[in-house]
Amino acid sequence: MRASRHPEGSVRRIGVWLVLWVCALLGSEAAAADRLAFVVGVDTYPNLGPGAALERPVADARAVGAALESIGFRVTLLTAGVTQETFLRRFSVFADQVQPGDTALFYFAGHGIALQGTNYLIPSDIPAIEPGQELLARNRALAEADLSAALRERGARVVVMVIDACRDNPFPRSGTRSVGLTRGLVRTEPAEGVFSLYAAGAGQQALDRLPGSDPSPNSVFTRVFVAQIRRPGVSLIDLGETVRDEVVRLAETVPHKQVPAYYNEVRGARFLSLSGSDPAPAEPPRPAPAPVPLPAPPPPLPAPVPSAGPAPPRVALPAPAPEPPREMRVGLFSHPIRLDPSGDNWLALRSRPSASEGVRLMKLGPDALFTVLGRQGAWLNVRLRGGETGWVHGDYVGCCRRAPVTP
Q1: Which residue, of 158, 291, 354, 363, has the greatest Cβ tally within 10 A?
Q2: In 10 A of CB 300, how many CB atoms?
Q3: Least confident of 59-63, 77-81, 134-138, 148-152
Q4: Count of domains in the chain?
Protein backbone atom coordinates (compact mmCIF):
# COMPACT_ATOMS: atom_id res chain seq x y z
CA MET A 1 0.00 0.00 0.00
CA ARG A 2 1.10 3.62 -0.48
CA ALA A 3 1.39 4.30 3.24
CA SER A 4 3.75 1.36 3.69
CA ARG A 5 5.87 2.42 0.71
CA HIS A 6 6.41 5.94 2.12
CA PRO A 7 6.37 5.68 5.93
CA GLU A 8 8.46 8.85 6.36
CA GLY A 9 5.90 10.97 4.51
CA SER A 10 3.08 9.61 6.68
CA VAL A 11 5.00 10.35 9.88
CA ARG A 12 5.76 13.84 8.59
CA ARG A 13 2.09 14.53 7.86
CA ILE A 14 1.07 13.29 11.31
CA GLY A 15 3.70 15.54 12.91
CA VAL A 16 2.46 18.57 10.97
CA TRP A 17 -1.14 17.94 12.02
CA LEU A 18 -0.10 17.45 15.66
CA VAL A 19 1.79 20.75 15.78
CA LEU A 20 -1.02 22.64 14.05
CA TRP A 21 -3.51 21.14 16.50
CA VAL A 22 -1.45 22.29 19.48
CA CYS A 23 -1.14 25.79 18.01
CA ALA A 24 -4.88 25.93 17.42
CA LEU A 25 -5.47 24.79 21.01
CA LEU A 26 -3.20 27.53 22.36
CA GLY A 27 -4.93 30.10 20.18
CA SER A 28 -8.39 29.00 21.30
CA GLU A 29 -7.40 29.29 24.95
CA ALA A 30 -6.08 32.80 24.39
CA ALA A 31 -9.30 33.73 22.61
CA ALA A 32 -11.37 32.27 25.44
CA ALA A 33 -9.63 34.44 28.05
CA ASP A 34 -11.72 37.46 29.01
CA ARG A 35 -10.72 41.09 29.62
CA LEU A 36 -12.42 42.88 32.48
CA ALA A 37 -11.97 46.35 34.00
CA PHE A 38 -13.04 48.01 37.25
CA VAL A 39 -13.02 51.80 36.76
CA VAL A 40 -13.53 54.29 39.61
CA GLY A 41 -13.70 58.10 39.74
CA VAL A 42 -14.19 60.13 42.96
CA ASP A 43 -14.76 63.89 42.74
CA THR A 44 -16.14 64.88 46.14
CA TYR A 45 -15.03 64.25 49.74
CA PRO A 46 -17.75 65.83 51.94
CA ASN A 47 -15.96 65.21 55.25
CA LEU A 48 -12.73 66.89 54.10
CA GLY A 49 -14.16 70.28 53.10
CA PRO A 50 -14.42 72.08 49.75
CA GLY A 51 -10.63 72.27 49.37
CA ALA A 52 -10.46 68.49 48.85
CA ALA A 53 -12.95 68.48 45.96
CA LEU A 54 -11.59 67.55 42.52
CA GLU A 55 -12.82 68.60 39.09
CA ARG A 56 -12.04 65.72 36.76
CA PRO A 57 -11.91 62.18 38.24
CA VAL A 58 -15.51 61.29 37.29
CA ALA A 59 -14.97 62.54 33.72
CA ASP A 60 -11.66 60.66 33.67
CA ALA A 61 -13.27 57.40 34.78
CA ARG A 62 -16.01 57.71 32.15
CA ALA A 63 -13.47 58.38 29.40
CA VAL A 64 -11.34 55.40 30.44
CA GLY A 65 -14.40 53.14 30.69
CA ALA A 66 -15.57 54.10 27.20
CA ALA A 67 -12.10 53.58 25.73
CA LEU A 68 -11.76 50.14 27.32
CA GLU A 69 -15.20 49.07 26.12
CA SER A 70 -14.24 50.12 22.57
CA ILE A 71 -11.33 47.64 22.61
CA GLY A 72 -13.33 44.73 24.01
CA PHE A 73 -13.19 45.04 27.82
CA ARG A 74 -16.19 44.33 30.04
CA VAL A 75 -16.25 47.43 32.25
CA THR A 76 -17.66 47.98 35.74
CA LEU A 77 -17.90 51.76 36.23
CA LEU A 78 -18.25 53.34 39.69
CA THR A 79 -18.52 57.15 39.86
CA ALA A 80 -21.38 57.93 42.27
CA GLY A 81 -21.54 57.36 46.01
CA VAL A 82 -18.09 55.77 46.15
CA THR A 83 -18.13 55.03 49.87
CA GLN A 84 -15.84 52.41 51.32
CA GLU A 85 -18.72 49.94 51.69
CA THR A 86 -20.07 50.53 48.18
CA PHE A 87 -16.61 50.21 46.70
CA LEU A 88 -15.84 46.94 48.50
CA ARG A 89 -19.20 45.39 47.62
CA ARG A 90 -18.91 46.28 43.92
CA PHE A 91 -15.25 45.27 43.77
CA SER A 92 -16.02 41.88 45.35
CA VAL A 93 -18.65 41.19 42.67
CA PHE A 94 -16.18 42.23 39.99
CA ALA A 95 -13.37 40.06 41.38
CA ASP A 96 -15.67 37.02 41.46
CA GLN A 97 -16.14 37.40 37.69
CA VAL A 98 -12.40 37.04 37.01
CA GLN A 99 -11.46 33.57 35.80
CA PRO A 100 -8.03 31.91 35.48
CA GLY A 101 -6.22 33.26 32.43
CA ASP A 102 -8.17 36.55 32.25
CA THR A 103 -6.75 40.06 32.01
CA ALA A 104 -8.04 42.30 34.82
CA LEU A 105 -7.53 46.08 34.76
CA PHE A 106 -8.15 48.42 37.70
CA TYR A 107 -8.31 52.21 37.22
CA PHE A 108 -8.76 54.78 40.01
CA ALA A 109 -8.99 58.58 39.74
CA GLY A 110 -9.29 60.55 42.96
CA HIS A 111 -7.27 61.19 46.09
CA GLY A 112 -4.60 58.79 47.33
CA ILE A 113 -2.15 58.80 50.19
CA ALA A 114 1.10 57.01 51.06
CA LEU A 115 1.36 55.62 54.60
CA GLN A 116 4.40 53.69 55.85
CA GLY A 117 5.47 52.64 52.37
CA THR A 118 1.99 51.58 51.20
CA ASN A 119 -0.34 53.40 48.81
CA TYR A 120 -3.97 53.85 49.83
CA LEU A 121 -6.88 55.02 47.66
CA ILE A 122 -9.41 57.25 49.43
CA PRO A 123 -13.19 56.66 49.16
CA SER A 124 -15.60 59.58 49.28
CA ASP A 125 -16.81 58.99 52.87
CA ILE A 126 -13.41 58.98 54.60
CA PRO A 127 -13.51 61.12 57.77
CA ALA A 128 -11.20 64.05 58.46
CA ILE A 129 -8.08 62.49 59.93
CA GLU A 130 -5.56 64.31 62.12
CA PRO A 131 -1.84 63.51 62.45
CA GLY A 132 -1.40 60.58 64.80
CA GLN A 133 -4.54 58.85 63.47
CA GLU A 134 -2.77 56.85 60.77
CA LEU A 135 -4.39 53.61 61.95
CA LEU A 136 -7.82 55.11 61.32
CA ALA A 137 -6.69 56.22 57.85
CA ARG A 138 -5.49 52.73 56.96
CA ASN A 139 -8.75 51.17 58.15
CA ARG A 140 -10.98 53.58 56.21
CA ALA A 141 -8.93 53.72 52.99
CA LEU A 142 -8.30 51.06 50.33
CA ALA A 143 -4.85 49.48 50.10
CA GLU A 144 -3.72 49.24 46.48
CA ALA A 145 -1.76 46.05 47.19
CA ASP A 146 -4.87 44.31 48.60
CA LEU A 147 -6.85 45.07 45.45
CA SER A 148 -4.24 43.68 43.06
CA ALA A 149 -3.75 40.62 45.29
CA ALA A 150 -7.47 39.87 45.19
CA LEU A 151 -7.39 39.78 41.38
CA ARG A 152 -4.31 37.57 41.32
CA GLU A 153 -5.95 35.15 43.75
CA ARG A 154 -8.77 34.69 41.24
CA GLY A 155 -6.21 33.42 38.72
CA ALA A 156 -5.92 36.48 36.47
CA ARG A 157 -2.95 35.95 34.17
CA VAL A 158 -2.32 39.70 33.89
CA VAL A 159 -3.35 42.42 36.36
CA VAL A 160 -2.98 46.04 35.23
CA MET A 161 -3.22 48.72 37.96
CA VAL A 162 -3.63 52.31 36.69
CA ILE A 163 -3.62 54.95 39.45
CA ASP A 164 -4.35 58.63 38.76
CA ALA A 165 -4.33 59.68 42.42
CA CYS A 166 -0.95 61.38 42.84
CA ARG A 167 -2.36 64.67 44.12
CA ASP A 168 -1.82 66.85 47.19
CA ASN A 169 -2.54 65.23 50.55
CA PRO A 170 -6.19 66.09 51.38
CA PHE A 171 -5.81 65.75 55.15
CA PRO A 172 -5.10 68.76 57.38
CA ARG A 173 -1.62 69.34 58.72
CA SER A 174 -0.60 70.09 62.30
CA GLY A 175 2.56 72.17 62.31
CA THR A 176 5.15 70.19 60.36
CA ARG A 177 3.31 66.89 60.71
CA SER A 178 0.93 65.39 58.19
CA VAL A 179 -0.94 62.14 57.68
CA GLY A 180 1.32 60.43 55.17
CA LEU A 181 3.37 62.18 52.49
CA THR A 182 2.56 65.80 51.69
CA ARG A 183 1.88 64.90 48.05
CA GLY A 184 1.97 61.96 45.69
CA LEU A 185 2.39 58.26 46.29
CA VAL A 186 5.37 56.00 46.91
CA ARG A 187 7.02 53.43 44.71
CA THR A 188 5.86 49.91 45.49
CA GLU A 189 7.17 46.71 43.91
CA PRO A 190 4.26 44.91 42.20
CA ALA A 191 3.66 41.21 42.71
CA GLU A 192 4.29 38.68 39.95
CA GLY A 193 1.86 39.13 37.08
CA VAL A 194 1.09 42.79 37.91
CA PHE A 195 1.77 45.82 35.69
CA SER A 196 1.39 49.14 37.57
CA LEU A 197 1.12 52.57 35.94
CA TYR A 198 1.03 55.77 38.04
CA ALA A 199 0.12 59.29 36.91
CA ALA A 200 3.33 60.64 38.46
CA GLY A 201 6.58 59.44 39.99
CA ALA A 202 7.14 58.91 43.71
CA GLY A 203 6.40 62.11 45.68
CA GLN A 204 5.30 64.06 42.59
CA GLN A 205 2.00 65.85 42.07
CA ALA A 206 -0.19 64.92 39.09
CA LEU A 207 -1.84 67.82 37.30
CA ASP A 208 -5.64 67.79 37.25
CA ARG A 209 -5.57 70.25 34.34
CA LEU A 210 -3.24 72.57 32.48
CA PRO A 211 -3.36 76.22 33.58
CA GLY A 212 -5.32 78.64 31.43
CA SER A 213 -7.91 77.62 28.87
CA ASP A 214 -7.46 73.85 28.87
CA PRO A 215 -10.01 72.40 26.41
CA SER A 216 -9.69 68.81 27.61
CA PRO A 217 -12.19 67.56 30.23
CA ASN A 218 -9.64 65.06 31.53
CA SER A 219 -6.51 65.17 33.67
CA VAL A 220 -3.17 65.47 31.93
CA PHE A 221 -2.34 61.82 32.59
CA THR A 222 -5.72 60.33 31.68
CA ARG A 223 -6.11 62.19 28.38
CA VAL A 224 -2.81 60.66 27.23
CA PHE A 225 -3.64 57.22 28.63
CA VAL A 226 -7.02 57.11 26.86
CA ALA A 227 -5.46 58.03 23.53
CA GLN A 228 -2.79 55.35 23.81
CA ILE A 229 -4.98 52.39 24.83
CA ARG A 230 -7.10 52.93 21.70
CA ARG A 231 -4.05 52.27 19.51
CA PRO A 232 -4.12 48.67 18.22
CA GLY A 233 -1.20 46.43 19.07
CA VAL A 234 0.50 48.70 21.64
CA SER A 235 2.28 46.47 24.16
CA LEU A 236 2.19 47.17 27.90
CA ILE A 237 5.82 48.30 27.83
CA ASP A 238 5.21 50.65 24.89
CA LEU A 239 2.09 51.94 26.64
CA GLY A 240 4.06 52.86 29.77
CA GLU A 241 6.88 54.47 27.78
CA THR A 242 4.62 56.51 25.49
CA VAL A 243 2.32 57.72 28.29
CA ARG A 244 5.33 58.81 30.32
CA ASP A 245 6.93 60.72 27.43
CA GLU A 246 3.72 62.47 26.38
CA VAL A 247 2.75 63.50 29.92
CA VAL A 248 6.25 64.86 30.56
CA ARG A 249 6.02 66.89 27.34
CA LEU A 250 2.65 68.40 28.34
CA ALA A 251 3.72 69.12 31.95
CA GLU A 252 6.89 70.88 30.82
CA THR A 253 4.80 73.47 28.94
CA VAL A 254 3.49 74.79 32.29
CA PRO A 255 6.29 74.21 33.53
CA HIS A 256 5.71 71.37 35.99
CA LYS A 257 7.57 68.16 36.75
CA GLN A 258 5.32 65.14 36.32
CA VAL A 259 6.92 61.89 35.20
CA PRO A 260 4.50 58.93 35.17
CA ALA A 261 6.05 55.72 36.46
CA TYR A 262 5.37 52.12 35.54
CA TYR A 263 6.57 48.93 37.20
CA ASN A 264 6.37 45.60 35.42
CA GLU A 265 6.25 42.06 36.79
CA VAL A 266 4.38 40.55 33.82
CA ARG A 267 6.39 38.08 31.77
CA GLY A 268 6.11 38.81 28.07
CA ALA A 269 4.81 42.36 28.65
CA ARG A 270 6.57 43.45 25.45
CA PHE A 271 4.17 41.21 23.54
CA LEU A 272 0.92 41.80 25.46
CA SER A 273 -1.53 44.48 24.36
CA LEU A 274 -4.67 45.75 26.09
CA SER A 275 -6.39 45.79 22.70
CA GLY A 276 -5.97 42.02 22.49
CA SER A 277 -3.88 42.09 19.29
CA ASP A 278 -0.40 40.64 19.41
CA PRO A 279 2.30 43.15 18.41
CA ALA A 280 4.68 40.30 17.52
CA PRO A 281 2.79 37.58 15.60
CA ALA A 282 4.36 34.17 15.34
CA GLU A 283 6.42 33.43 12.25
CA PRO A 284 4.23 31.64 9.65
CA PRO A 285 5.40 28.22 8.47
CA ARG A 286 7.49 28.25 5.29
CA PRO A 287 7.11 25.67 2.51
CA ALA A 288 9.57 22.82 2.39
CA PRO A 289 12.37 23.20 -0.15
CA ALA A 290 11.91 21.29 -3.41
CA PRO A 291 14.02 18.12 -3.66
CA VAL A 292 17.22 18.43 -5.69
CA PRO A 293 17.15 15.95 -8.65
CA LEU A 294 20.12 13.64 -8.99
CA PRO A 295 22.25 14.14 -12.16
CA ALA A 296 21.81 11.62 -14.99
CA PRO A 297 24.57 8.95 -15.12
CA PRO A 298 27.21 9.44 -17.88
CA PRO A 299 26.81 7.31 -21.08
CA PRO A 300 28.82 4.03 -21.14
CA LEU A 301 32.20 4.04 -22.89
CA PRO A 302 32.36 2.15 -26.28
CA ALA A 303 33.76 -1.35 -26.19
CA PRO A 304 37.44 -1.56 -27.34
CA VAL A 305 38.02 -2.79 -30.95
CA PRO A 306 40.59 -5.63 -31.28
CA SER A 307 43.70 -4.63 -33.27
CA ALA A 308 46.76 -6.47 -34.43
CA GLY A 309 49.00 -3.48 -33.76
CA PRO A 310 50.30 -2.27 -30.45
CA ALA A 311 47.74 -1.11 -27.86
CA PRO A 312 47.18 2.67 -27.81
CA PRO A 313 48.26 4.53 -24.72
CA ARG A 314 45.65 4.61 -21.95
CA VAL A 315 44.14 8.03 -21.22
CA ALA A 316 43.29 8.82 -17.61
CA LEU A 317 39.62 9.79 -17.24
CA PRO A 318 38.55 12.42 -14.68
CA ALA A 319 37.16 11.06 -11.41
CA PRO A 320 33.35 11.07 -11.32
CA ALA A 321 31.75 13.82 -9.20
CA PRO A 322 30.55 12.63 -5.79
CA GLU A 323 26.85 12.00 -5.50
CA PRO A 324 24.91 14.66 -3.53
CA PRO A 325 23.47 13.46 -0.19
CA ARG A 326 19.97 12.14 -0.14
CA GLU A 327 17.25 14.67 0.68
CA MET A 328 17.05 15.47 4.40
CA ARG A 329 13.80 14.82 6.20
CA VAL A 330 12.32 18.16 7.33
CA GLY A 331 9.72 18.57 10.07
CA LEU A 332 7.79 21.31 11.87
CA PHE A 333 8.83 22.14 15.43
CA SER A 334 7.50 24.39 18.18
CA HIS A 335 9.85 26.94 19.74
CA PRO A 336 9.99 29.50 22.58
CA ILE A 337 8.28 32.86 21.98
CA ARG A 338 7.74 36.07 23.95
CA LEU A 339 11.14 35.87 25.64
CA ASP A 340 12.50 39.22 26.81
CA PRO A 341 15.80 39.91 24.99
CA SER A 342 16.72 42.53 27.58
CA GLY A 343 15.87 40.17 30.45
CA ASP A 344 16.63 36.49 31.07
CA ASN A 345 15.74 35.51 27.46
CA TRP A 346 15.24 31.81 28.23
CA LEU A 347 12.43 29.35 28.94
CA ALA A 348 12.74 26.76 31.70
CA LEU A 349 12.42 23.06 30.86
CA ARG A 350 11.11 21.55 34.11
CA SER A 351 10.76 18.00 35.37
CA ARG A 352 7.13 18.53 36.41
CA PRO A 353 4.27 20.72 35.11
CA SER A 354 4.73 23.30 37.86
CA ALA A 355 6.88 26.34 38.58
CA SER A 356 7.18 25.39 42.26
CA GLU A 357 7.45 21.58 42.13
CA GLY A 358 10.18 19.46 40.57
CA VAL A 359 13.43 20.90 39.25
CA ARG A 360 14.59 22.92 36.28
CA LEU A 361 16.29 20.58 33.82
CA MET A 362 17.78 23.20 31.51
CA LYS A 363 17.32 26.64 29.98
CA LEU A 364 15.87 26.82 26.46
CA GLY A 365 16.91 29.80 24.38
CA PRO A 366 14.90 31.41 21.55
CA ASP A 367 16.41 28.99 19.00
CA ALA A 368 15.41 25.83 20.87
CA LEU A 369 13.20 23.44 18.88
CA PHE A 370 10.95 20.74 20.32
CA THR A 371 7.92 18.55 19.64
CA VAL A 372 4.80 18.84 21.79
CA LEU A 373 3.79 15.47 23.24
CA GLY A 374 0.84 16.42 25.44
CA ARG A 375 -0.68 18.99 27.75
CA GLN A 376 -1.59 19.37 31.44
CA GLY A 377 -3.36 22.65 32.20
CA ALA A 378 -1.13 25.53 31.08
CA TRP A 379 1.93 23.24 30.78
CA LEU A 380 3.11 21.36 27.69
CA ASN A 381 5.05 18.12 27.71
CA VAL A 382 7.78 18.43 25.06
CA ARG A 383 10.65 16.44 23.56
CA LEU A 384 13.75 18.28 22.37
CA ARG A 385 15.46 17.32 19.12
CA GLY A 386 18.20 15.69 21.17
CA GLY A 387 15.68 13.41 22.87
CA GLU A 388 15.37 15.16 26.24
CA THR A 389 11.82 15.49 27.59
CA GLY A 390 10.23 17.80 30.15
CA TRP A 391 7.58 20.46 30.72
CA VAL A 392 7.40 24.11 29.55
CA HIS A 393 4.74 26.77 30.16
CA GLY A 394 2.35 27.03 27.21
CA ASP A 395 2.29 30.85 27.30
CA TYR A 396 5.79 30.84 25.83
CA VAL A 397 5.43 28.22 23.08
CA GLY A 398 4.91 29.17 19.44
CA CYS A 399 4.47 27.37 16.15
CA CYS A 400 6.18 26.62 13.79
CA ARG A 401 9.72 26.35 12.47
CA ARG A 402 11.11 23.94 9.90
CA ALA A 403 14.28 22.02 10.61
CA PRO A 404 15.86 18.67 9.70
CA VAL A 405 14.54 15.71 11.62
CA THR A 406 17.33 13.99 13.54
CA PRO A 407 17.52 10.18 13.25
Answers
A1: 158
A2: 6
A3: 134-138
A4: 2
